[in-house]
Specification:
By secondary structure, the protein is mostly beta strands. The chain has three domains: 166 residues, STM4215-like, CATH 3.30.2000; 90 residues, Immunoglobulins (Immunoglobulin-like, Sandwich), CATH 2.60.40; 95 residues, Immunoglobulin-like. It is built from five helices and 24 strands. The strands form six sheets. Strands 1-2-3-6-5-4 form a six-stranded mixed sheet. Strands 9, 10, 12, 13 and 14 form a five-stranded antiparallel sheet that branches. Strand 12 and strand 13 form a beta hairpin. Helix 1 crosses helix 3 and helix 1 crosses helix 4. It starts with 5 loop residues before the first helix and ends with a strand. InterPro entries: Pvc16_N (IPR025351). This is DUF4255 domain-containing protein.
């Protein structure tokens, strides 16, 4: 691993290697649009034009980190360099390019001694030479299209060049990680937890829910639901309810201790319609959550002509519990699904306007995917009356 000077250290080491091989002409590291005028005479330009994150080291722990510790991840980089030669004589430029390419080809690994020699004075704080992973240099073959795009981006005339890839440069993350103290005991008498192979969990769990109205898939505020519980928590139970779409919660105190079946009477108010999750807790122990559907309850319906050609009708449904901002709602008139625009404030009324055929239509309100229960469970037929249907003339 190394510090943030690692990129500059790689550039310095490559520059020194090429300079030593050429034995005279300078080696610049400027952008290609400045390279022709950077030095008078023969020279080679080595430009870092791209950096990538090495995929194999992206989520790896730093080498040498003990098990159980969580150090901050490394920054593993792959560096891409463009090598080009410049001279008043094109033949000389080709000679320089060949010599520079040979310098990078001869030793595909940057030795630690070479990195240290190149960075000892200009980059005294660099520790790239101490990195455990070798820094490797390899030729990178680019398509003609990629090369053309790259030189176009440099906004300078094209020159014969070569691309090289340097990997992997591992930069340490200075942010503190987690290093917990060693574990002295794994439990009482230094015994680790004992595994009991069983398909049945020993922990408290709700295994089922039964609504108060037989056959009904939903509950209304004030109704009771029965939870089937395995290994119920000991002590007086509390039922926790959490709405899955909006930030609404509720609690129901249960005076009786846990048993295989727990009856929970839902609050009359503060229980907006939609999908909920319910769980039981006692003495710091809680069960899993199971889904609970709370249906909207229609208190009144109205249908008013809205005019237009063809004629349209406005249907307004008044519900017993307010619909909260952020809830998705719709009014279902007969077989028509009519979405309600998103509310800007909590409301008890939902209105839709549409072309609705004349006749008597059943009306349902849908809040976050939960519909009004308009089935009379005693008779198995649809409910009738002013809270279940409208007449469109």
């Amino acid at each position: 691993m190394s510090n943030s000077l690692a990129i500059a250290a790689v550039t310095a080491a490559l520059r020194a290697r090429v300079f030593n091989r050429l034995g005279g002409p300078q080696v610049t590291i400027v952008p290609p649009d400045r390279a022709p005028d950077e030095v008078n005479g023969d020279h080679v330009n080595l430009f870092l034009y791209r950096t990538d994150v090495h995929p194999s080291f992206r989520n790896a722990d730093p080498p040498g980190s003990p098990p159980g510790e969580s150090p901050k991840p490394l920054l593993p980089l792959v560096l891409h360099y463009l090598l080009a030669a410049y001279s008043n004589d094109e033949g000389t430029a080709h000679e320089l390019l060949g010599a520079a390419m040979l310098a990078l080809h001869d030793t595909p690994i940057l030795p630690r001694e070479e990195i240290l020699a190149a960075t000892a004075i200009p980059l005294a704080g660099s520790d790239l030479h101490l990195q455990l992973e070798h820094v490797k240099v390899s030729f990178e073959s680019l398509s003609q299209d990629d090369i053309a795009k790259m030189w176009t981006a440099f906004a300078t005339p094209y020159r014969v060049s070569a691309s090289y890839q340097v990997s992997t440069v591992l930069i340490d993350n200075p942010a503190p990680g987690l290093a917990p103290l060693p574990v002295l005991k794994r439990g009482p008498d230094d015994r680790s937890p004992v595994a009991h192979p069983d398909v049945v969990s020993p922990f408290p769990a709700i295994t089922g829910i039964r609504y108060g109205v037989p056959g009904s898939p939903v509950a209304l505020p004030g109704e009771a639901v029965t939870l089937t519980v395995r290994n119920p928590p000991e002590g007086a139970l509390v039922a926790h309810l959490r709405h899955l779409r909006v930030p609404a919660t509720a609690e129901v105190q249960l005076a009786t201790p846990g048993s295989a079946e727990v009856k929970v009477v839902l609050p009359v108010s503060g229980l907006p319609a939609g999908p909920w999750a319910i769980s039981l807790a006692a003495g710091g122990t809680s069960t899993n959550e199971v889904p609970l559907a709370v249906a909207p309850e229609t208190a009144a319906l109205a249908a008013i002509p809205a005019g237009g050609t063809p004629p349209r009708t406005t249907v307004t449904a008044t519900v017993s519990q307010p619909v909260l901002v952020g809830q998705q709602t719709a009014v279902l008139v007969g077989g028509l699904h009519l979405p309600v625009p998103l509310l800007t404030a909590d409301s008890y009324t939902l209105s839709v306007t549409a072309e609705i055929p004349p006749g008597v239509h059943k009306v349902r309100v849908r809040v976050d995917g939960v519909d009004t229960d308009i089935v009379d469970r005693a008779t198995g037929t649809f409910r009738t009356g002013p809270t279940a249907e409208v007449v469109i003339s």
